[in-house]
Amino acid sequence: MIDRLLPAERLLYSGASTCAGTFECHPGDPLFHAESPSTAHCLVFSRTPVWIRHERGMRYVADPTVATFHNRGRVYQRWAIAREGDRCDWIAYADDLVADAVSRFRPGRRGRDPLWFPAEFSRVSSRVYARQRRFFERLHAATIDSLGVEEEALLLLDKALTAAAAPAAAATSPRHFDAVQHARAVIASAPDASPSLRMLARGAGTTPFQLCRAFSRVFGETMTAYRTRLRLLASLERVRAGDPLTDIALSQGFSSHSHFTASFRAAFGMTPRAWRARAGGWRRT
């Protein structure tokens, strides 16, 4: 299932059908910039933003709003966005499970390895991101048995593949795709900041109008909504840790505790206090 573990990886679970673990690599590590083949067919959930380019693919931003698919043996490369480097959680799958999961995509995949995933990444909802965070927290705490691990691992794969199979946005040019990725990189590097639209467009090599139009078409939401979602996803760890909610709200760019709570509920379907209690990290604030 996994050819080998990399020095930056930590294995949390190993079973007959799936394996799961974490990856943490800082930009100063030689491994960070090396072109290397993926060691397994796996689904990756990023916790920090990082540029990724798969062999023969286009460069894109992997961050908490997307799930990335890696195919065993396919070479990929990364570039830093955040000073933390690349922090992510991954789930590897046995070949027969991958073949079964991707079988519905085979008609349009002539000439490609039948085990390859149908996309390089897919946009995932805030609730799916929160769901996988709970999954990995349970792995760290050893509070989930093998049946629970393997079932949840496959359900997360189904969520990511379903998102990848959703009707594609209107066709866009490689230039517009690249412009959107550059804007995402700037926003994801400091989601608590408020960059100007002109600055984002200038850095992406396009106009404000073209960037607004391309971002919504390529990524399915506005830049403002994307930034808000990044802020909320980043808040999950601090909410779980028991930080005062007002402090979290203001540091993440929300105007007040109530504004943060309302946005959190809309994104995750529960209040910050409910998330804290569910994650097992509740304390009075």
Describe it for me?
It is a single chain. The protein is of the alpha+beta class and 285 residues long. The protein has 3 domains: 9-164, Jelly Rolls (Sandwich); 174-220; 225-279, Homeodomain-like (Arc Repressor Mutant, subunit A, Orthogonal Bundle). Helices cover 45% and strands 18% of the residues. The strands form 2 sheets. It has a 6-stranded antiparallel beta sheet. Strands 3-8-5-6 form a 4-stranded antiparallel beta sheet.
Average pLDDT across residues? 90
**Helix/strand order, N-terminal first:** EEHEEEEEEEHEHHHHHHHHH
Query: Termini, distance in Å?
Result: 44 Å
- What low-confidence regions span 5 or more consecutive residues with pLDDT below 50? 281-285
Query: In this structure, how is the largest beta sheet organized?
Result: 6 strands, antiparallel
Q: List how many beta strands DSSP finds.
A: 10
Tell me the name of the CATH class of the largest domain: Mainly Beta
CATH architecture of the largest domain: Sandwich
H/I helix tally? 11
Q: β content, as a range?
A: 15-25%
Q: Into how many domains do the coordinates divide?
A: 3
**Fraction of residues in helix:** 40-55%
Structural class: alpha+beta
- The CATH superfamily of the largest domain is identified as Regulatory protein AraC
C-alpha-based Rg, rounded: 19 Å
CATH fold node name of the largest domain: Jelly Rolls
Side by side, the strands of the main sheet go: 1-2-9-4-7-10
The shape is globular
